[in-house]
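hiii, so i know i said id send this last week but things got crazy w the move. better late than never?? heres the sequnce for the chain we talked about at the cafe, plus the structure i predicted for it. fair warning i was half asleep when i ran it
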Amino acid sequence: MTKQSYELRGSTQIMYDELSKRTTVRIINAPTSILSYEDNAGDTHLLYSTTSDKSSATGVIIAENKSYSGVVIKHLSLPMPEDRVCSMIHEAIDFLHTYKKVVVKPIANSGGKGVSTDITSVNELKRAYKFAKNYGNRVIVQQHLEGTDLRLLVVAGTFVSAVRRIPARITGDGVQSIAQLITEENDSKRRNDPANLSLLHIDKTAAKRYLSTKINSVPEKDTVVRVIGPANVSLGGELQEATHLVTDSMKADAEIITNELKLGLCGVDMMWNESTNTYGIIEVNATPGIDIHNDPFSGTSSDAVERYVEWLIN
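okay and structure toks below
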């Protein structure tokens, strides 16, 4: 194993290891997660993290832009929450008055950057709008959907597995403040296990933004407190195996949008309301983490990596 291969992380490392079993693979640059590999015909392809040049470039561009992907989802008559692209704050305020509870995010982002959830007041909206503008000139305001946050993984056009994404949380002990409990959680062994790449430190800056002054309050013993809005792993969120929760219609819709975009690998995020058995597609991801779909720490087990590499080299 080369020195550079030790510098790979997460999904890129997994992709490199699986490709190495089947074909020639080279590390172009480890810090930027760029690899090259040969397919079975001897042709060379580039791989950025989990995105290959075999996927449609147009599909990748559309998936990375929440406005564009929303247009395609609506065109396909798939379920999704109402949204509005806003260039001015008054547009966002009008949308909030209509839907009462919203999510605010930059049009192009990843890892939950610039995202604010559970917005119910104009003052909260103004702060969230300003925060999102740090990541782009245009902001998308989306109707808030209650339910379970699911990431469905589609490989080579077929649904493979799903994980439930749970926002970062702490459990009160009746003594320490939420801020102290976050520090204690971040110092815990389970969040500092090099083998567990799917459980990272809770982002304290994001927690302060979400909780405001509540971060200094002391929750009662055994009370579970959500400390960050978005459920992203990069912000300290947790994952659970959830393939068994996914209905046939959810699988079908995830496959429809993935195949329309002509992506070899796609993560389709949905909010599912179990009590009404309704759901909406929140966004699509052209470069999803594939490592979280075969992770013993969250109980997931699938052949997603093997299927994807098979598609890449054939």
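btw Residues 156 and 311 are 6 Å apart (CA to CA). thought thatd interest u
miss u guys!!
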